[in-house]
Amino acid sequence: MDKQGKEISIKINGKERPFTTETSTYIEAEISAAKEEEPLALEAPPLVSFPSETTPSKKRPKVNRMIKTRVKSAVFSIFMAVIIGTSFGFIVLNVIPEKKEPMSLQKDRSLSAISPASSSKTANVPPSSAAEGNTESAFTVSVIQAGVFSDEKAAKTYAKQLQNSGIPIVVAVGQQPISLFIAVGADKETLQPLNDWYKQKGQSTYMKSLSLGTVNDRQLQDFLTASESLYEKVAVLSARLLGKGEVKPNEWASLKNAYKQFESQSPSNNQAKQYVRHLKNAYLSLDAYQEEEDDALLWKAQQELLEALNDYISLTS
């Protein structure tokens, strides 16, 4: 068979090249081979793998395992904390009190051993010494104050001016700064009408309460306590009458009864004797007012009560 075949000339890149039939056959074979390779080239891309797409699917199981591990450890820690806290509380509530209980029992036993001795000592105390240990409640009155001074001389000068105008007044003892008292009553409520009258007259006033002291001398203290009822009644009635109030018949009767009980008092202390004199004069002035209804007797009763108040303060200071 003739292999040469026919010659065919073809221009390739401007140059003619002769080809035979066999050559064309060769070219056809190459073309067919190229066509067979094209499907392979098209099928190749599906085999390519991208790390960015496949990586998450590989890492997710690891992340889930880490989260589960942390949750388990947290739950375990909380559980252990609860157990430890509960155990510690149980120990504090049960173990520690049991350890301290013997000490408290020992103290109770020691106290029970001491108490009989102390009670026997108390039983052997004489009545007189037991009475001396008692404390008397303080006697309380209210006063109208006309002013305070740092200088005693100035206070006495002003007090003399007020006294010359008919106002009862004393320079209070034991007061710092120095105070001037112009009225006394059982309480502020009793003195309020009289205080208003003073203010209407242009007098500057101030009301305050005084808590008087006590003394250690039992006999003297009994005397002062016995006088308090009479002092209070004279102060209340005289202040009320000066404030244009009224006194009921039973109050006059109670006043007379209080005076009868106090009249027999005769203390040996000189200051106490002076106190008795001022208090009796205050009562006698008030009793005279019941018959005469002269306001000057009420002012005199207040003056005597203020003097007696100074005596009481001197006795208990």
Structure description:
The protein is α+β, with helices and mostly antiparallel strands and 317 residues long. Among the domains are: 7-41; 140-316, 2-Layer Sandwich (Alpha-Beta Plaits). Helix content is 68%, strand content 12%. The protein has helices at 21-43, 51-123, 127-133, 152-164, 188-200, 218-242, 249-263, 270-292, 295-316; strands at 7-12, 15-20, 140-149, 170-171, 178-185, 206-211. The strands form two sheets. The chain has a four-stranded antiparallel sheet with strand order 4-5-3-6. α6 runs parallel beside α8 (270-292). The termini are far apart. The model is unreliable at 40-58 and 97-134 (pLDDT under 50).
SSE topology sketch:
Layout: E1 7-12, E2 15-20, H1 21-43, H2 51-123, H3 127-133, E3 140-149, H4 152-164, E4 170-171, E5 178-185, H5 188-200, E6 206-211, H6 218-242, H7 249-263, H8 270-292, H9 295-316
Antiparallel strand pairs: 1-2, 3-5, 3-6, 4-5
The CATH class name of the domain at 140-316 reads Alpha Beta
Query: Helical proportion?
Result: 55-70%
Q: How confident is the prediction overall: mean pLDDT?
A: 77
Strand content: 5-15%
User: Treating each run of at least 4 consecutive H or I residues as one helix, how many helices?
Assistant: 9
Q: Return Rg in Å.
A: 59 Å
Overall structural class, as computed from helix and strand content, comes to alpha+beta
What topology, given as strand order, has the largest sheet?
4-5-3-6
Say what the CATH topology of the domain at 140-316 is: Alpha-Beta Plaits
Parts with pLDDT < 50 across at least 5 consecutive residues? 40-58, 97-134
Shape: elongated
Query: CATH superfamily of the domain at 140-316, called what?
Result: Sporulation related repeat
